[in-house]
Design goal:
By secondary structure, this protein is of the alpha+beta class. It has 2 domains: 3-66, Orthogonal Bundle (Helix Hairpins); 72-150, Transcription elongation factor, GreA/GreB, C-terminal domain (Chitinase A, domain 3, Roll). The chain contains 3 helices and 5 strands. The chain has helices at 3-33, 41-66, 119-124; strands at 86-90, 96-102, 113-115, 132-137, 140-150. Strands 3-2-1-5-4 form a 5-stranded mixed beta sheet. A hairpin with a 2-residue loop joins strand 4 (132-137) and strand 5 (140-150). Helix 1 packs antiparallel against helix 2. The longest helix is centred in the first third of the chain and has 31 residues, at 3-33. It starts with a helix and ends with a strand. 16% of the residues are buried.
């Protein structure tokens, strides 16, 4: 996982524990005060939210305890694509696309972050600036040229 990914998970965990969890507890308390719990929809909804929040807390804590955080800025920069690097590639029409190779939990194509296990990442990792890479996709092969590799 990248340093940024760890930071985001820690922020989410802090929010869940300090803001969401107390809000849910308060909602449960208020719903209990209204009487019969068997037919109290507010109570059941709050308990369901509590279950989701506690599950997410356990999930994040597990990920953070098992994570290997890689700070790409502390590595000697080169032109080789590795986990955490930002890559600018050019397609066959010379359109440039930027990708950052991140852990599976951090991947977000809308933010140009692709999972290290994705076919694009697997094809790019280990290659260098100037290399041409062919990526097999269901719709056919895509050819990229690696324009630049950034260690930021």
């Amino acid at each position: 996982m990248t340093v940024e990914g760890e930071k985001l998970l820690r922020e989410e965990l802090l929010e869940l524990k300090t803001i969401i969890r107390p809000q849910i507890s308060e909602a449960i308390k208020e719903a209990r005060e209204k009487g019969d719990l068997k037919e109290n929809a507010e109570y059941h909804a709050a308990r369901e939210q509590q279950s989701f929040a506690e599950g997410r807390i356990k999930d994040i804590e597990g990920k953070l305890s098992n994570a290997q955080v890689i700070d790409i800025t502390r590595m000697p920069a080169s032109d080789k694509v590795i986990f955490g690097t930002t890559i600018i590639v050019a397609d066959e029409n010379n359109n440039e696309i930027t990708y950052k190779i991140v852990g599976e939990d951090e991947a977000d194509l809308k933010k140009d972050k692709i999972s290290v296990t994705s076919p694009i990442s697997r094809a790019l990792v280990g290659k260098s600036e100037g290399d041409e890479v062919t990526i097999k996709t269901p719709s056919g092969n895509i050819i990229y040229e690696i324009v630049e590799v950034k260690y930021v």
